[in-house]
Amino acid sequence: MSMVCLSDFELFAKEHLPKTTWDYYAAGADECCTRDDNLVAYKRIRLRPRMLRDVSVTDTRTTIQGMEINFPIGIAPTAFHCLAWHDGEMSTARAAEAMNTCYIASTYSTCSVEEISTAAPNGLQWFQLYVYRNRKLSEQLVQRVEAQGYKAVVLTVDVPYTGKRRNDIRNNFKLPPHLKVKNFDGIFEQVETFQGQVNEKQCMTSPFKQTRAGEYDFNGAEVYGGAVNSLDPSISWKDIYWLQSLTRLPIIIKGILTKEDAELAVEHGVQGIIVSNHGGRQLDGGPASIDALSEIVETVQGRVEVYLDGGIRTGSDVLKALALGAKCVFIGRPVVWGLAYKGEEGVREILQILNDEFRLSMALAGCRNVSEINRNLIQFSKL
Ligand SMILES: Cc1cc2nc3c(=O)[nH]c(=O)nc-3n(C[C@H](O)[C@H](O)[C@H](O)COP(=O)(O)O)c2cc1C
Ligand SMILES: CCCCCCC(=O)C(=O)O
Q1: pLDDT at residue number 216
Q2: Alpha-carbon distances of 329 from 37, 279, 358, rounded to whole Å
Q3: Fewest CB within 10 A of the end CB: N or C in the chain?
Q4: How many angstroms separate the Cα of 303 from the Cα of each of 26, 256, 350?
Q5: Strands (DSSP E) found in the chain
Q6: Residue 271 half-sphere exposure toward CB, CA atoms < 13 A
Q7: CB-based burial of residue 76 (10 Å sphere; 0-12 exposed, 13-18 middle, 19+ buried)?
Q8: Is any ligand 2 atom within 6 A of the Cβ of residue 204?
Q9: Closest protein CA for atom 7 of ligand 2
Q10: With contact defined as beta carbons under 8 Å apart, do 339 and 84 qualify?
Q11: How many angstroms is it from 379 CA to the middle of ligand 2?
Q12: Could you give the domains of the chain?
């Protein structure tokens, strides 16, 4: 099979993964309007290419949080890579290391943070954190990733509750018995003895057993591999200060979609913002992330780095996001398609193809390096 573009990997993954796994990776919330708009929105944006600018030499390198990466495309946190490939996140980490880009490892990884950093000891890894009702869980994770040499904590703020993904409910999606959320191995028992306030096992319940807003039937079945409803829906801006008190690592906030929240994020001292709607898996009806980017970039005015994820599938999508002010983009689903195709090699191919396309788009638009990409490339009358 000749793999030419990211859609080829999507097709392969759809044909080869078990249906429940495919459905889980592909899922959007409710009617999937936001998930689908994440892709279509790029196609509404037109570019204004410049000519005769000697693009014989092009350079895609950039920096994020002061670290150089070979191209402005990183790997967004996605859960459960071992559903797609036997050693899952370890292969993902090796691919990111080989390509010299950033991998944001999910809390809901099927390899532990230690296994991931050991698999790719020279890779640039950030850790994606959820905040738990029992704060000791989050605290321990932060201490572990700091000890392991992760370079930033990415706090996901768009999951006070899990979005309603219809096929996961229909399929009664669960991790198969041979897989688990490795970061929680043995940790619940320890944490219970620290505080005794939350029995995490009781909290392994379907988000869809919610009875009314904010209340759960804790007798429901496990859905996303454990501890699902132990996420703290009361998380608020003051928790940024709590997280800052735990770590010296830069804090990147993931899931911002408005200028108001971007301003609050900067005021609360975060070091970066990921404009994201969680791949359309949370609030259906929210904006495509590329459509939310401009107001956030305008508000932030360069005070912190702004990144974006959601719907990036081609090099020209990357170019458009950078032209609208993103310092770097991150990809989610394409990485699990790459894993399903050929593990580490598949993820490397995904990154290579996307970067080749980006380099070509950049050159065809008349840009020799990423610092030459700016808003003049965007045809605003068509926005
Ligand atoms: C299967 C899957 C699992 C995800 N798991 C997480 C997660 O554990 N933590 C998180 O912050 N975001 C998670 N996300 C959201 C991604 O980080 C990212 O926002 C989204 O996938 C980007 O959109 P894309 O898939 O169109 O590239 C997940 C997304 C998918 C598709
Ligand atoms: C308690 C939330 C579990 C969600 C698992 C990972 C995720 O974020 C997703 O979108 O799926």
Answers
A1: 31
A2: 17, 13, 12
A3: N
A4: 34, 15, 32
A5: 62-64, 67-69, 73-75, 102-105, 124-129, 153-156, 210-212, 215-216, 251-256, 272-275, 305-309, 328-331
A6: 15
A7: buried
A8: no
A9: 79
A10: yes
A11: 36
A12: 6-184+217-380 (3.20.20.70)
Please tell me if the CB atom of residue 27 comes closer than 6 angstroms to any atom of ligand 2. no
Handedness of CA 342, 26, 315, 290 (dihedral sign): negative
Is residue 198 within 8 A of residue 230, CB to CB? The reply is: yes
What's the whole-model pTM score? 0.93
CA of 333, nearest ligand number: 1
CB-facing half-sphere around the CA of 264: CA atoms within 13 A: 14
CA distance 66 to 290: 24
**ipTM score above 0.95:** yes
Q: How far apart are the first and last CA of the chain?
A: 37
Residue 163 CA to ligand 2 centre (angstroms):
9
**Distance between CA atoms of 282 and 9, rounded to whole angstroms?**
24
Q: How far is ligand 1, taken at its centre, from the CA of residue 26, in Å?
A: 10
Query: What pLDDT, in 10s, does the model give residues 15-44?
Result: 999 999 999 999 999 999 999 999 999 999
Q: Which residue's entry shows tokens 């573009």?
A: 5
Ligand nearest to the CA of 226: 2
* Atom 1 in ligand 2: residue holding the nearest Cα: 228
